[in-house]
Amino acid sequence: MKKDNESTYMVHLNELRKRSIRILIAFILFLAVGFYATPTILEIIKSTSLKVDLDLNIFHITDSLYLYIKVSSLFSFIAVFPYCLLELWLFIEPGLSKKEKRFFSQIHTYYLYFIYSRFIICLFYYYSLLHYVFSKISND
């Protein structure tokens, strides 16, 4: 009996490992895409700053590289997050009943809508507001 428990644990761990590797590969691919798209993303961020003219200042040699890495990492995380939830769902789904599956699929849909709508609101409203407040503070 103990051998069966160990083999089922190994099957589950192998399944989890495969899904984790897929998520990591997707993250790395979107990281490369994000690194390529970082100038465009930065232009979009600068154009959403409606109240104040935004200039990006680089004070050290490595700041531009750090900026590219941070923006591409954020882009990759945002792009891979739904895929990560899908892989998590596909890992958990076989152990759920039909009622639980229906409940969690509805929550998943609303959750993704909520996350992306909050991201858009933050990008267009809060970023401009924070930049305006911090520029007022720095001028005083």
* Rg value: 21 Å
Extended strand count: 0
Structurally, the number of domains stands at 1
For the biggest sheet, the summary is: none
What is the CA–CA distance across the termini? Answer: 73 Å
N-to-C order of helices and strands: HHH
Question: Helix/strand/pairing class, anyone?
Answer: mainly alpha
Helix run count = 3
Strand content: under 5%
Average of the residue pLDDT scores: 80
Question: Segments where pLDDT lies below 50 for 5+ residues?
Answer: none
Shape category? elongated
Query: Could you estimate the helical fraction of the residues in percent?
Result: over 70%
How would you describe what is shown here?
The chain is mostly helical and 140 residues long. The chain has one domain (2-139). The protein contains 3 helices and no strands. It has helices spanning 2-48, 63-92, 98-139. α1 (2-48) crosses α2. The chain is elongated.
What would a concise description of this structure say?
The chain is built from three helices and no strands. It is mainly alpha-helical and 140 residues long. The radius of gyration is 21 Å and the shape is elongated.
Topology:
Layout (H helix, E strand, L loop, with lengths): L1 H47 L14 H30 L5 H42 L1
Helix pairs in contact: 1-2
